[in-house]
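Just curious: can you write whichever protein you like plus the matching structure tokens?

***
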Amino acid sequence: MANVKVYNIEGKEVGTLELNDKVFGVEINEHLVHMAVVSQLANKRQGTQSAKTRAEVRGGGRKPWRQKGTGHARQGSIRAPQWKGGGVVFAPKPRDYSIKMNRKEKALAIKSALTSRVNADKFLVLDQFGFDEIKTKKMKEVLNNLKVNKALIVLDKKDANVELSARNLPNVRTVLSNSISVYDILKYDNLVITKDAVAQIEEVYA
């Protein structure tokens, strides 16, 4: 089992933590990780875009001029796609972009992403994380102490002070341990997580 250092919010080492290899030491499955990212981005799409085809545009029922003898190219409708105000050739229509992944595939993708962060030494464990007040400056100091800039902060329980302190930092995102996603893990350079959150993740995915 992998051992990682545990830090406090001052950036000082206060101990070590043994990680469960069933979660943080699996064989990385790049295909499932890719599928999970594509699935998450696709599922965010609303799919409400719509445009009218030539059959749906108002007007254009009469042939604009006779077939032959005018010198013009033959035309059947002023609402054909080549006319201004005409319909769209392959008009986009509302559709469902969502991609389904099996539960076990999702779990393995998350474990693969977590393992990749541990292997790259981008997995920082804090003994505890909490502020007495909402202060963005304080959050910035903690990240500087840990020598990280772009970070995903994983909490074991909802903490408004921490969440609101991180909200104005463009390269920082806070999530609860039960809401982590492969996309977020890979998007941010470092994963900052509390000891209790590690325990919660191991309990779910081990």
